[in-house]
Amino acid sequence: xxxxxxxxxxxxxxxxxxxxxxxxxxxxxxxxxxxxxxxxxxxxxxxxxxxxxxxxxxxxxxxxxxxxxxxxx
Length: 73
Ligand SMILES: [Zn+2]
Hints:
The chain has one helix spanning 42-53, and strands at 14-19, 25-30, 35-39. It is of the alpha+beta class. The protein has a domain at 10-53: Dna Ligase, domain 1, CATH 3.30.1490. The chain is elongated, with a radius of gyration of 21 Å. 0% of the residues are buried. The chain binds zinc ion (ZN). Residues 19, 21-22, 24, 40-41, 43-44 line the site of zinc ion.
């Protein structure tokens, strides 16, 4: 029983998938070592789809007001 074979986890080749928008880690799956892939998380994907559906016309001249979003710090 002195045989120390390589464990299946030893290769450690994992690919990390990160959201290109908010930087949230989405997934880790077998792949190339130290490879980071970029995708979109559900939230950002939704925002992108909304953008396509309702294209915003340029940036507003005065956007000083905070976003009416539920902010729980
Ligand atoms: Zn995101």
